[in-house]
Fold these 2 entries.
Entry 1:
Amino acid sequence: MNEYDEKREERINALLDGELSPDDADRLKAEATDDHELARAIIEAYQLQQAMDTVNVERAPDSLRKKLRAIPAEQKPNPFFAIFQPRWAAALASIPLVIIALTLIQPDTPTEREVAQAREEMAIAFAYLDRAGVITGRQIESKVGQTMADAVTGSVNKAIQSQNLTSKEKEV
Amino acid sequence: MKHLKMNRFLAGLFCLLVTLPVIAQEDELKDLPGYVDFGDLSVTYGEPKLTINLGGTMLNFVGMMSSSESPETSELISKLKGIRVQIYSMDENVDAARSQFSETKGNLKSSGWEPVVQVNEDDEQVLVYMKMDKGNMEGMTVMVVDDEEAVFVNIIGQLNPEELGRVMDQFDVDVDLDMD
């Protein structure tokens, strides 16, 4: 539909609705006298208007009207279920993460039992250190005799002490 | 698509939060000059019979707990930064343990560690190495490999052997050490 057709349709609708001024109405009618196409368009529009006026609007059944009226209320989001929307779900899921993060970031304060366990583990480690010393002493003893073993090492502690002394002597 | 991205983000965040402290503690010890990498013998012998990993934080707590009953023990512990022990039970195959023993020994030598004790017998090998810096001990490592087990001990920090000898009696620990 071009601009001319649109303008003509507007004028025809205005004529049928009684919205044209008498001068404009006379002018349109004069144009229709010479323009058969315009005249036919006015007649068809008039006939369509008449036909529409004769159509009876049937009332929908009450049950259907009730259902239709209920639709907007059903579509309205329920505030309770709104928390299951993705953004709320993500926010809820992040709460335990934040709690875990805070727990982990805080310095660990071990329980008394854990400290006792750690103390025992430390003692075991020291016992194995001592074991190395005993093995060393035993080996020396088997090679050079008890007296020399006691003199040289006896335990790894003595050997380590001598190493400490040697290092300090070197510094001096 | 938006949900998928959010889920991935949350999952990534969770993994990061859980693993971060573990990684941090391990790295904390690894960065210390007294740390020794013993490798991994679990492929050959399965999980270690005993694993001890005590970091500086836990040792501080142990030291604090010991301060009232034994200031000397507390003093000894305060100088320690970490204690690590790995003990593997072995079957007849001791080659992997001996190989790891030799490899670690080579690494210690090249890293400036000093040998204190070495026992090389057919059925038993013992190594004690120390890392010194300007007269101060930074770490000590003890490795014992015999026919039954491989023991790797790494003390990180300063350990005064004289003090250790004095406080050993205070640790009432029943450790089954095979001395035969």
Entry 2:
Amino acid sequence: MFAYLVRRLLLVVVVVWGAATIAFGLLYLSGDPTNLMLPLDASEEVRDTFRREYGFDRPLPVQYGRYLGALLQGDFGTSLRNEQPALGLVLERFPPTLKLSGLALLVAVLIAVPAGVIAARYQGTWLELSVMTGALLGQAMPVFWLALMLILVFGLNLGWLPISGSGSWRHYVLPTITLATFSAASIARLTRNGLLAELKSDHVRTARAKGVFEQRVLYKHALRNAAIPVVTIIGLQLGTLVSGAVITETIFSWPGIGRFVLLAVAQRDFPVVQASVVLFALILAFVNLAVDLLYVVLDPRIRYS
Amino acid sequence: MMTPRRTLRLPLGRFGRILRRPAALVAVTLIALFLLCAAFAPLVAPFDPNAQSLATRLSPPGEGGHLLGTDQLGRDLLSRLLYGARLSLFVAGAGVLLGLSIGLPLGLLSGYAGRWADEIIMRLADIQLSIPFILLVIAIIAALGSSLTNTILVLGLTSWVAYARVVRGEVLRIRDLDYVQAATALGAGARRRLLRHILPNTLGPLIVLITLEFARLVVVEAALSFLGLSGVSAETPSWGQMLASGREVLFFGGWWVATFPGVAITLVVLAVNLFGDVLSEVLDPRQRLR
Amino acid sequence: MRITRLLLALLVGGWLLASVGVAQTLTIAQGVDATTLDPNDQEETPTANIVSNIFDPLLFRARDGSIEPWLATSVEAISDTVWEIELRDDVVFHNGEALDAEVVAWNFERALDADNPIRFISNFTQITGVEVTGEYSLRITTDAPFPIFRTHLTRFFMVSRQNYEALGRAGAAENPVGTGPYQFVSWQRDERVEMAAFEDYWQGAPSVERVVFRPIPETSSRVVELVTGGVDIITNVSAEAQGLINRSGTAQVATVPSIRNIFVIFTATDEGPLADPRVREALNLAVDVQAIVDSIFDGNAELTATPLNSYMFGYAPELEKPLYDPEQARALLAEAGYADGLSFSMGSPDGRYLNDRTVSEAIVGQLREVGVEVDLRVQEWSSYVGQVLEKQVPTDAYLIGWGNSNFDADRTLFTLLYGGTVEGGPAQSVFSYWQNERFDDLVLQARQVTDQERRETLYAEALAIVSEDYPWIFLYQQGDVYGVSTDVDWQPRPDELIWAYSASFE
């Protein structure tokens, strides 16, 4: 187990290096930040000064070498747009996003898992039909469409909830619903499908044949096994929720990392983009690791060596 | 010794039975309807989708013969929706094909060859997932220009990981099954084993994944349009672009401009997901109806 | 039950207390947050809006475009290369530090320091010396005549030296101290910048006690916040939203013609159909700009037939003329040998200017009416502008907007149209795909004379050439549209600046 962990951690380093390198290459492909940082009519002289100041006039391998060297010392450079250390700017944006996505995922799991269990338990009834219809709709609606509809109803027509910013708990309601809907829908469907498959499997049939009560079969035997794909999808969504809340954050003016990175990429703020890519890679790697370790807890047959 | 050859049986009989289930029927009907619309858009569309008329801009549904109303430039929404189906379905379909053609071989290689190939491919997948989607999109647009092809390229490049992971998982599961072992014992070559015995058996979960990915890409294309990053040409827009530009008037006396493409996207995604569910019940042996 | 009631009473009481005690706050929502609060290290309008409430410049651009004394009572050229600045003697910073010639000189030196460059340095490259000549007077020397020095001073803000030296460059950019009507309170990035009235402001304390700037990127969200009372002033209102705002009863639309012109630059002017001035004229005649303005902007934009607008020095109203004439356009196309039509490609941004993409699509639709097929390629702004500045535009024409921060013809005509045909003169501008020797000559001449009347005649002749040769499709002068709460009395400015000192609650 220990050797396994060490190996996994070493691979994290490789993945982070790979992500940082590809991000560097993509940024280079995406063009010269000088044009976006300076006014349209800045003179060529001024542009050259800017390029020199940030080292964009150096040959590519030199730029890459400097970047990796600084990275090794934990130095991500200074934001071109904000003139502040890039790492600090990125770290500042994480807590709002983590709070929002964490809450959304929690809400999603709390609603979706019981809903999925109900749908499986009462298969073929109107209960299943309504849960599954809701889930399918939730999964099919484009996120920004849902967000705009929530603003229309609860912001404009009813005036119950604030629709931008992150000042109080009331600000959390609409973005949380927006983010949680898709997650809840997919988790509910997966829980139901997994449970149904398990309920038909041999060992559950055996348990039933042995006279174990239906509730016990459901919770003790089937749910535990059905949890594995659910954990996988939760892990996957945690990863994408962190980086993928761009649209929700934009529509609800949430001061999070998604919106910040979108702007940084659009403005070619190289240091900020690079810092966030490295952080994304780290988070993703550790979420993956956590998910793999959870498998061991859930399924005694899985062992890592 | 008999070779217990298990290839894919296309369970048409079973499929026919499933079609009698209302959910499946709804899904198949909807999908067929959208495909027909896309195929016969020029015949069905009541107007030229690009014919502008600033005088009759933002006509509500039903007015002036425009069944679903007109948009900000007075173009007939229904006709644009019909033509839009072509583009949206094509972009998502091509994206799936590209993703599949990268992910499937990598997944097979990863699962079958194992060891170094496996490690490299799976870590590549991790790296891919760490790169912000937006960065990849903008880099491709900036380097190669904004076009339909490049949008498809982006969709394909960002979706191969799912195929690779699923195929790898299936290969790992099947590789050790008795009949493959038996084929090996009988001296079947690696290529033959891969093509004859393993590949067909990964098809079940793969087809389910394809439907899910297709549905996802329809939505992703819409999101790209929302962020102004879609390379789909302006004149014959996708549903995503209609939805994105319609949001400017959504609250302000033009609810229909964004609503109908929104409904279209929702319906297609819903139908395809539903279809995927049915397929998974048919194709996945673990979930066969008994 | 009793507890519930108690809680309810507490809640209601607390709410009443809160609503009585709170100072009136003016909340302003723009698309993005400030990049920095260092007023001389920024170049974006939203940032300028925020810092100009905390800091004062030496001279002030009035709403009508004229330049007024501000922290400086006078800025005079005593020779071609020497300027004398006289300062007010009653100005203090928010931290109590007095504004005198030493502090102003230090501000100039900071903006000239090439080892630690701030963005404003590019405006001052001509300055060679700064000398304190009295407690409230100083002298600036330049290496050549510097006619737009006063213009630059309207955007050059005075920063507290004590604060800067105590906190350093990065610290001062997050905790700004200036002499402006509002003092900085807090900055939560991407969420809000808060400021409070500065009671010792040299022009008297402002009427509004607290000001908050909030970034709200999505246009519809801004509008909904305005009409539901969440914010008091919003920027960039789309034409479609204006009706909703005016009907809401809680807010109204305020408009002002902007300094920004929108137009289409032809790039394929070397060969092919667009090289023929008759074709370019025909394309101008085929676009019904009035219809576009009426339907897309609700009439709120001025048509243009030259590159300038009425705010700019050198503007020639006599050259403005109605262009739309589809019959004449067809005739010209036939004359040029394109009776059967022609096709070209055109680029457009999406979301950079008000309704830019919709305007581009409307142009395409109207050109189709005269048999011209346009392949429209909409592109994300950051790659679009990169191609423009590297002169690698892949299309035969592209739509762009141009704001003129100097209010002077030179900034538009030289930067956008100068063709580089004058021997020994500057090279062709990156925005120019058109060459006319006489035009280049006139524009360069106007740079070298100081007599304003003479400059005016030179520009008039240059403009006449442009308006006959159609290097662009001339479109319109954009209107800036704001939403303002009915409780607030505030007037928009043509240079997009939001100055809270001029606002009050009714």
